[in-house]
Amino acid sequence: MQFEVCVESLEGAMAAYRGGATRLELCSSLIEGGLTPSAGLIREVKRHCPLPVHVMVRPRSGDFLHTPHELEVMLSDIEFCHFAEVDGLVFGVLDSQGEVDLQAMGKLMQAAKRLPVTFHRAFDVCRTPVRALEQLIELGVKRLLTSGQQPTAFEGRQLIAALVRQARDRLVVLAGSGVNPQNVIPLLQATQVREVHFSARSGAASHPVHVQERLKFGVSEEHWVTSEEKVRAVVKTVLG
């Protein structure tokens, strides 16, 4: 089993490691679905955490239809990821019809070179998932992160199971979204996936400092942290 934990800080990376994660998806702004992390964060996580680090390459929140300028940014981020010696990349681009953008993905895959690529949950808004899976395999994508086009992976377990059967050993299907100790075993049994993805997040209040009541610098008075205990609970449920 592989337990991939999505983290957005060095503290989160170390908490995931202590909790039993086997791989990290490193990003920023989990509240927006995950964006490209900073160069400093990538370097420090690689420096301090022994787990494989797969970096999210996503220049903005919202849809997955990226402009030529955004693709240039993504290519530059991939170039830096090679320099930082990350272990994998996570990205996905769709066209205006809700299909995989083969031209854009081809450019990004070429830039990725030796690094294994995970196509992220842009897949969950693809118009034709069966066709999209075959296209991703043809492109050389190694892993697909999906909730089965439902809000949670458990709700999407039927499609995930079908994708696992379709992919066979040509691509790894990674089930993610809403994975927790209560549903992880039924999810594994229903889908036969061997990799799960989860964030194990808990809310943490902002540090007690002087506050200017009229000014806000985020969408919430709290921030998300990775819970070592929540990671450990999922891992322990599966491995005993």
Concise summary:
The protein has 240 residues and is α/β, with parallel strands linked by helices.
**pLDDT below 50 for ≥5 consecutive residues: which ranges?**
none
Mean pLDDT: 93
Describe the largest sheet. Answer: 8 strands, parallel, barrel
Helicity level, as a percent range?
Answer: 25-40%
Question: Into how many domains do the coordinates divide?
Answer: 1
CATH topology type? TIM Barrel
What integer value in Å does the Rg equal? 18 Å
Terminal-residue CA separation: 12 Å
Number of helices: 8
Please identify the top-level CATH class: Alpha Beta
Indicate the CATH architecture. Alpha-Beta Barrel
Order of helices and strands: EHEHEHEHEHEHEHEEEH
Shape designation: globular
Which structural category do the helix and sheet elements fall into?
A: alpha/beta
β-strand number? 10
Quaternary structure annotation: single chain
Widest sheet, order of strands: 1-2-3-4-5-6-7-8
Overview of the molecule:
The chain is an alpha/beta fold and 240 residues long. The protein has one domain (2-239): Copper homeostasis (CutC) domain (TIM Barrel, Alpha-Beta Barrel), CATH 3.20.20. Helices cover 37% and strands 18% of the residues. The strands form two sheets. It has an eight-stranded parallel barrel with strand order 1-2-3-4-5-6-7-8. Strands 9-10 form a two-stranded antiparallel ribbon. α2 links the parallel β2 and β3. The longest helix is centred in the N-terminal third of the chain and has 16 residues, at 68-83. The radius of gyration is 18 Å and the shape is globular. The two termini are 12 Å apart. The mean pLDDT is 93. This is PF03932 family protein CutC.
